[in-house]
Amino acid sequence: MAARGSALAGFIAVSCLVAATAAARPAFLTLPGERPDDFKGDIWALLIAGSAGWGNYRHQADVLHAYQVLRHGGVKEDNIVVMVQDDLIDNPFNPHPGKIFNRPGGSNVAAGVKPDYTGAAVNSKTFLSVLQGEQTYTAIGSSGKTIKSGPEDRVFVYFADHGAPGILGMPNGAFLYADELLGALANKSAANGFRDMVLYIEACESGSIFEGMLDDSMDIYATTASNAYESSWGTYCPGMDRPPPPEFTTCLGDLYSVAFLENSERYDLREESLDKQYQRVRRRTSNNGTYAMGSHVMQYGSLTIDAEPVADYLGAANTGDGSAENGLLGATDGEDEPVMGALPQREADLLPLWLAVQRAAPGAPRAAARAELAAVLDTRRAVDEAARGTMAALLSQPAVLAALQAKYAYVNLLLPAAALQDSNAAAEVAAPVVEQFVSAPLPRAAGLPLVDDWSCLRAMVGAWEAGCGKLDQYGMQYTRLFANLCNAGIGAQDMATAAARTCRASALAA
Ligand SMILES: *[C@@H]1O[C@H](CO)[C@@H](O)[C@H](O)[C@H]1NC(C)=O
Ligand SMILES: *[C@@H]1O[C@H](CO)[C@@H](O)[C@H](O)[C@H]1NC(C)=O
């Protein structure tokens, strides 16, 4: 399967301002009225929520909802693996114990779900093993199910969580790095572990997982909630248009996820192609083309696969009868998609804390809620300051400064010439360079992955964490800074020194 994939490098957008536009499929690939291929195998699905905690309710809700869609579609229970922290059903904040909802007025998406991996078993290592069909995790409480798909089978992988450049979050242990995911996909492909595979990824900067990483050689097709440079968005949050019932203090869903899930309930998936679903989901996730509250849904990999019906991945009994989760949102053709309220992922987490302050009784309860919110904001501020402090410390090292000057022209543009003669002075006038490194996207050329050397990125994260503490779902955004340093040939040892020095006096240090 080749064709459009070869044009991929050309159309990948390098700016969050530019939506990717897929070229039209050559007409010869499908004859009128003919399905692009006959599907003889089985469907397998791996569904994972990479987060935990009440503030991240929406990710597990999305994943449980996906399970309902697959089951409604007729996909066998034995072929679906669900990985969720499972800390919400009995969560003290849950106003409806035993139930989880993914949209206002929707049905309980936890009904009948027996998650296969929960708690500490939800980690990147187990995920990669399960995906490759390796039964390595045998802890009590896990089903041990894995994706034992064969050469005729189709595999659907869905992930919902926080992300950051080059990484996906996990509720336990290390991040999942793009090169590890791609390595597992390559292994499974080499082992004839599927006919075609489709991945749907909801996470911030999720385009960075596949950009320059997934070509058209493996019969794998992926769509992501956002491009490599932008947030993905939570939705159905308290206080926005289409709010959850007032007893909820957290968002129920994510914009891209509910767009594809509700679309899958609305339409006859035997008729709807993956490409059609992509077009509809892209439109809805853009919030009616405004991108004011929304992101650029992207496509990667073997794009010819998108001519296949969605039913081949989510089940042929999804015929649009709407009975799965009464999914009646999402426009039909010719209508506008609904415009939804939305919040960037990293702000959506704060909502429950902020609402707790609003709703607490005056006096001690409100002061306690306020202190809890303030503590989280303080930690975020400390991470932001540490990233800037570390970058300034790096710039004060002559060898590092020289390497950055050689790699990035703007270092010379932003630092006055006199400062460049003297690396100590450079550190003092380096604020704009620091800011550029820490917060600006620094797009790489189209078709290049985030980082040339993924081991360097892992080592940089390790070096940072040794000095400044574990990167959390907020701090993880600084992987782009680390990647840009790696791409200039800066090593983890320099990071270790700078981070240790910067964070020695910081509350972040472990
Ligand atoms: C892919 O297979 C190789 C060889 O068996 C193995 O060393 C590697 O860890 C696998 N990759 C992943 C991501 O599991
Ligand atoms: C969506 O955008 C179209 C074209 O810009 C506009 O005419 C329409 O009113 C918008 N719909 C909503 C619901 O905002």
Automatic annotation (TrEMBL):
Statement: the UniProt record of this protein carries the keyword Signal: yes
Top EC group: hydrolase
Active site residues according to the UniProt entry: 162, 204 (nucleophile)
InterPro entries: AE, Legum_prodom, Legumain_prodom_sf, Peptidase_C13
GO cellular component terms, semicolon-separated: vacuole
Matching PANTHER family: HEMOGLOBINASE FAMILY MEMBER, LEGUMAIN
Protein name: legumain
Organism expressing this protein natively: Elliptochloris bilobata
Source taxonomy: Eukaryota, Viridiplantae, Chlorophyta, core chlorophytes, Trebouxiophyceae
